[in-house]
Design goal:
The chain has 290 residues and is an all-alpha fold. It is 78% helix and 0% strand.
């Protein structure tokens, strides 16, 4: 009996077998997206933009001194200012005057922050009080602080108290206005919903008004802290033997221009440091604002 012929059909390897036999190293890595490359480039530029700008300023400063031929008592070179900075820092002169200015600036800022936020909240709650005091607050900004500082020195003396008060006066208005603007921009619907839910005055301020107002308030706090250093220096200019403002006056009388540059650059460093500190505090407290 004849048996049927068995046909052998060749089978192709499956796709899974091919994937298993293919080494992983042979698979090509996906090319980075153009947006990712652009973001990396922008991140690098943001990281090194300030140091590059600082180097360009110093090089331009040195080039101006070389080309124009200024004398050291007119415009000292960056190297001469650096040498004077090292000598003033090593002798303790710079540290003493810096601590006095920082103490007066922070004291004035703390006083302005307390009074500015409290008065801003009262003006927000009591509209009649805002209408009564708005012209006076606006008129107070028309008088420069340099014109009021001699009176404050006359009334409170030449000590640290007068410098703190001058710093507080110049810092008060930005903090007050930022508090008012921050509270006014809160939607009315949120307050109404909180009142319908039975929120008390404290709960309204703690859970609705303060969290929503903090991002805008920090803008005024940053500006006020920068102005507090200016107010402290103004008080030291008018009357004072200590502080960076007094050091600038002393250096001017001695025709020590490099020391004047040292005091000015120290003020810049203080202001930038305090500004960065407030930005860090803002990121920690209102990180949810983004």
């Amino acid at each position: 009996m004849q048996q049927p012929t068995q046909h052998i059909i060749p089978t192709l390897p499956s796709q899974s077998a091919q994937a298993a036999s293919t080494p992983l190293t042979s698979q090509a890595a996906p090319a980075p997206h153009p947006t990712m490359r652009r973001n990396r480039r922008l991140s690098w530029m943001n990281r090194f933009s300030f140091p590059l700008a600082l180097v360009m300023v110093v090089l331009g400063w040195q080039l101006l001194v070389v080309i124009s031929g200024y004398q050291p008592y007119t415009l000292p070179s960056p190297l001469l200012v650096l040498q004077r900075f090292v000598s003033a820092a090593s002798s303790g002169l710079l540290l003493h005057h810096t601590l006095v200015t920082v103490t007066a600036a922070l004291g004035g800022f703390a006083l302005a922050l307390l009074t500015g936020t409290l008065l801003g909240y009262l003006l927000f709650r009591l509209r009649w009080l805002e209408r009564a005091t708005a012209p006076l607050l606006a008129a107070s900004q028309a008088v420069p602080i340099i014109a009021i500082a001699p009176l404050i020195i006359l009334w409170f003396g030449t000590g640290l108290q007068a410098k703190i008060l001058v710093a507080a006066l110049i810092t008060f208005f930005p903090i007050l206005m930022s508090t008012l603007v921050a509270l006014r921009q809160i939607p009315r619907e949120l307050r109404e919903m909180a009142l319908i839910s039975g929120a008390s005055w404290w709960q309204m301020m703690r859970y609705v008004e303060l969290p929503l107002a903090l991002p805008v308030m920090f803008a005024g706090i940053r500006t006020g802290l920068a102005l507090a250093t200016t107010g402290a220096v103004v008080g030291e200019f008018v009357a004072g033997r200590d502080g960076l403002g007094a050091l600038i006056n002393i250096a001017r009388g001695l025709f020590d221009t490099p020391l004047m540059f040292v005091a000015i650059l120290t003020l810049v460093i203080i202001t930038l440091t305090l500004y960065q500190l407030v930005e860090w505090v803002e990121r920690v407290i209102v990180h949810w604002a983004d």
